[in-house]
Amino acid sequence: MDNERTSRFSFSPLSGMLFGQGTEIVFKNPSENLYLSELIWDLKPLIYFGLSLNYGPANSYIDSGLIYNASIKFGLPVRTGYIENRDWLNTTQHHLTHFSQHYAYSNSSALADLSLGYSFALFNRFTLKFYGEFSLMYFIWTAVDGFTQYPPPPWSTAPVWNSELPKENIYGVNIRYIQNWYIFSPVISLETRVRSNISLEANFSYSPLILCFARDDHFQRNIIFYDILLYGNYYNAGSSLKILLADNLEFSLVLSYRNIEGTRGDNYVEENNSTTLYRNIGGALYSALDMSMKFQIRL
């Protein structure tokens, strides 16, 4: 009988927001972690809408089976806070010498996840899931209007930056920064029934398998920086509250936190029609809280 089937498809319209930041780093030299430059781009917040497609056991507390999930989220092109740029340009002492701040706008953003694994039913009350997940994150920010606080040259002997330095106003689009993240991670998840129509789920993943392509355009300086970054530490922890509204309709509130650190690689500088390679001085970070809600419609 159809109502006895053990697996089913579902799809879920969803919406939510990211609250965090992406960071571009330039290190002073290949073998140390001292910063030469740091640009922090806000996602405070980034509103998104999306859709997910799921396949798995019709009742995961009774039946074990294959699970599949694919999701895509698109961020709205809105202002997401500020971009702050700090530099440590003194060549003999390591202290902050330069600071600038602009409005940060998200021009385009997308997050996609694709997972495949297996779900185990335990004691008619728990569901244990193991799966592999491939994640893609794509962000484009622009820095618009703002100010700089720079000391007088020569910058190689610049004193410690202080907030009393005069501000020079900057107008228009000054910087564009692009981050492309590609991550493969193993995930473990545990779900349990609290009541007949309410369940809780928690998941965790960690992986060093990270690839990032980044590009930084400085329009007023007519210079472009490219980064090819590998490995690092990726963490993703989340939880969700699920409420079964009807046999084929479930509402979920989802909270998760994603963090990427330690990603490092080569930096390419394109200026005056020539490109210079600097080994292992490029870096990037990402950290964001993800809060969303979705309606899962079971087919």
Which secondary structure elements does this structure contain, and how are they paired or packed?
Layout: E1 7-27, E2 35-57, E3 65-75, E4 79-87, E5 98-122, E6 126-149, E7 168-195, E8 198-207, E9 210-218, E10 223-230, E11 233-246, E12 249-271, E13 274-298
Antiparallel strand pairs: 1-2, 1-13, 2-3, 2-4, 3-5, 4-5, 5-6, 6-7, 7-8, 7-9, 8-11, 9-10, 10-12, 11-12, 12-13
Mean pLDDT: 96
CATH topology grouping: Lipocalin
Number of H/I helices = 0
Structurally, the number of domains stands at: 1
Radius of gyration over C-alpha positions, nearest whole angstrom: 23 Å
Which structural class is indicated by helix and strand composition? mainly beta
CATH top level assignment: Mainly Beta
At the fourth level of CATH, the homologous superfamily is OMPT-like
| Strands, total number | 13
Strand count, sense and barrel status of the largest sheet are: 13 strands, antiparallel
Order of helices and strands: EEEEEEEEEEEEE
Q: How much of the sequence is in beta strands?
A: over 45%
CATH architecture: Beta Barrel
Q: What is the molecular shape?
A: elongated
What does this entry show, briefly?
The chain has 299 residues and is an all-beta fold. It has no helices and 13 strands. It has one domain: Beta Barrel (Lipocalin), CATH 2.40.128.
